Amino acid sequence: MRTIKVKSYCKTLTCPDARPIALKRFRHDENGGATLLTLYLLFIILLIASFGIDLMRQEMHRAELQANLDAAVLSAATVPYDNDPETPDAKDRLIDHFKKAGLEEALHDVEDGDIVVNAVSAKVSASASEKIDTHLMRLTGVDTMTAAAAATAKESVENIEVSLVLDISGSMRFGDRIGDLRPAAKNFISAMLPNEDREKTTSINIIPYAGQVNPGPEMFEKLGGVRYGTTGGDFFPDSTHDISHVIVYYDRDQNDSQPYDYTAKLEDYPSSERDKIVKDDLDSYIYFLDAFLRREDSDLSDSDTLVGASYKAGPMESGPHFLNGATAGFPPAQDDDVDAEYDFDDFYDEVLPQTSSCLEIDSSDFDHSGLPGQGNYEQTGHFMYWDIAANYMDWGWCPEDDTSIVYAQNDKDALRDYIDDMRLHDGTGTHYGIKYGLAALDPASMDDIVALKDGGLNAYLPEEKHGIPTDFDDRPLPWGAEDSKKFIVLMTDGKITAQYRPKEKYDPDHMINAMSNSDREVASHKSDNVSSFDQACQQAKNNGIVVYTIAFETNGDGVKQMRRCATSPSFFFKASKSSISKVFSAIAAGINQLRLTQ
Fold first, then answer.
1. Are residues 313 and 284 located together in one domain of the fold?
2. So what's the pLDDT on residue 427?
3. Residue 81: which pLDDT band, with cuts at 50, 70 and 90?
4. DSSP reduced 3-state for 215
5. Residue 563 belongs to a domain
6. Is 514 found in the same domain as 466?
């Protein structure tokens, strides 16, 4: 039997004989198409990845170029601190920076107007670019790419205000820290005031602080300070003759009808004047006299009330006068009726000296950023808490008047001399330091500070009193004033402590002996003082003041307080004896630093 093969012309899947063949062919075509699609997608992915690698290389080159350009224009735009002809000019500094980075060919030509530098300001603009060979992108016909950068930097030293707040506590004598601070602070001043042009635009306040801050005797009076021992007013009539004796009246029994029950007489007044008091003005020493009588007279107790006083001067009998200035309605005691008599010289020997002028401010004065403004502030007494080291220190918790605040000065030599002549004092009241450093920059203080300008009120400097320079009639400038910047540089070698005061603030023992624990009382606790400190630091930062802080040879709370107060951690420095000069130099460079504008 012969088998005949028949060729089918059925072309559809409905054909029974053709179905297996058609399906097999279809599956073969499907697998082949998928493979081609996969290869195509992989090719696209590899192509994109290759582009990404080249683009990444371009961005890396651009970032490196931009960083070098930023640094170069910053260096070039720095206003020269001196007139040394050997100092490279701005263009040379710009080119030299690129040479050292191996990028000299990338820097574009510097055109006229790109660099403008003078004694008080500078502006430098520059651009650069590099050609970069591609790798895989060249497969698409792109052989090179360009990395480009441009920058403008400018520095303006117009209207700079600095408060330099320096710790002069007794611990600064340990390891001669004060000996390391002096040259560091003087070099800082030189960097801020390098030439006459800078002096016209840069004012420096120096705020030395120990246990307290002395705003100066003139500012003390202006702010309403009341000298210890005085009434703070003009309650007793001035005498036109030398006083010969004074009688003081006390009320020992407030329940009876008698205006006074006890009298004490101070006699044998000298004809010549005395330094500590105005002997013919009872207002200047009535409370010293009261304290003296209570110390000397065992019949007087704390419950006995001082009523007033009378005096005899020449043929005149004046008073009695109450402590508020009113004339008493009773006749003066007769000389032979007084209960006790004392000699003027014995009293005068126990009067505390008026060598300092600190105000007793409290936490409410930290609610604002200006100078104390309530008026009628008691004077901080003349005392020590720790023993004195006389070769380094002067007596007192409050720095003496020749170590009081210097306001808005630009005399470089005088400021440097002042730093050399500062004497150490007792205590560490860093919260007072930042308070006055801030107040000296607050525009609300302008009237009080400018009042120091001509005669009458003056800022203390070594051996003479300097007024506020004419250029600074408008300082402190308003917050946020155009082309101006305010800075605080705060340095300490310790930490904030409680504030102690003597229980008997007129006791002459404070002139020769440090307080014992039984002699003292707490005026403000450490926690309250730290809170006041933090408040002042925050006020400074809120008002746009840049705050640099230095913890010098200290640890623990002192470091934490300084770091917290700084504008940011990068504005805080921990300094040692070997690095303190570098720290002050770095801060001076930072203040003189410019801002990148493009």
1. yes
2. 95
3. very low
4. coil
5. yes
6. yes
End-of-domain residue from the set 348, 371, 390: 348
Render 437-457 in DSSP notation, one character per residue.
Answer: HHHTT-GGGHHHHHTTSSSSS
Write the single-letter amino acid at 552. Answer: F
Structure tokens at 224: 């309403």
The answer to whether 205 and 290 have CB atoms below 8 angstroms apart is no
Q: Which residue is listed with tokens 């200035």? A: 325
pLDDT band at 198 (very low <50, low <70, confident <90, very high): confident
Give SS3 for 8: coil
Indicate whether 165 belongs to any domain.
no
Extract the tokens encoding 559.
């470091």
pLDDT in tens, 522-543: 999 999 999 999 999 999 999 9
pLDDT for 179 equals 97
Cβ(328)–Cβ(315) below 8 Å: no
Q: Do 217 and 252 fall within a single domain?
A: no
Q: Which residues have C-beta within 8 Å of that of residue 584, sequence separation ≥ 6? A: 184, 185, 187, 188, 489, 550
283 close to 231: Cβ distance less than 8 angstroms: yes
Provide the token pair at 558.
């002192």
- d(CA 580, CA 551) in angstroms, rounded, equals 10
Evaluate whether residue 570 is within a structural domain. Answer: yes
Question: What is the amino acid identity at position 237?
Answer: P
Residues 517 and 550 in one domain: yes
Structural domain boundaries, residue 253: 243-348
Chain mean pLDDT for the chain: 87
CA 139 vs. chain centroid, Å, equals: 62
372 token code pair: 């104390």
Sorted by sequence, the CB contacts under 8 Å of residue 543 that are 6+ apart come out as 369, 442, 479, 486
Q: What average pLDDT does range 104-126 have in this prediction?
A: 81
Q: How far apart are CA 246 and CA 263, in angstroms?
A: 10
Contact 388, 426 (CB under 8 A): yes
Q: How far is CA 547 from CA 186, 190, 305, 479, 489, in A?
A: 19, 20, 50, 15, 6
Q: How many residues does the chain have?
A: 598
- Is residue 7 assigned to a domain? no
Angstrom distance (rounded) from CA 535 to CA 537: 5
8 Å CB contact between 285 and 229:
yes
CA–CA separation, 356 vs 164, rounded Å? 20
